[in-house]
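Worked Example 4.2. Consider the chain below.
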Amino acid sequence: MSSVKLAVDELIAPLASAKTLRARAEELKEIRLKWLEEPLWPPENFDGLAELRRSRGIPIAAGENVYTLLDFKRLLDAKAVDFVQPSVAKMGGVSEMHKVFPLAAVHNIAVMPHSFYDGPGLLAAIHLTAACGTVDSMIEWRRFDVEAPRSPRRPAGLLCLRVRA
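Applying the procedure from the previous section yields the following structure tokens:
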């Protein structure tokens, strides 16, 4: 068994039926993901996320499209997530995102900030995670490689990992 854990960011159901969603979740369950990120649309469907989490046994991460502390409280109260992913750029900056950490701690939920950004947004997420996160905290970040040639094997912006033995 590998010690590498996969996290999947896949919007399963913007228009999918409940049957399609359940089937896809069953396929993903076999992989034993670290988390499945924001699989439902609209993102404020906290009850739907909670049902998916309960019924399929897949760890759920969400929060990059949650903008207020009140909505983070609703997300956590619904028991919809195993990991909460606030975005410093979407929720009003460092002061507001800082408040998510103690709220998540009360629910025993890890904060894994979402940062789809370079520059100040990424630096703010790193700073907050270093100051307020736990030993298990990570930051979701997408590596941008605009200089690299594109190909079907390596689309623009895809993070490519090279594993060395």
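The chain has six helices and seven strands. The two ends are 16 Å apart (CA to CA). Compare this with Example 4.1 before moving on.
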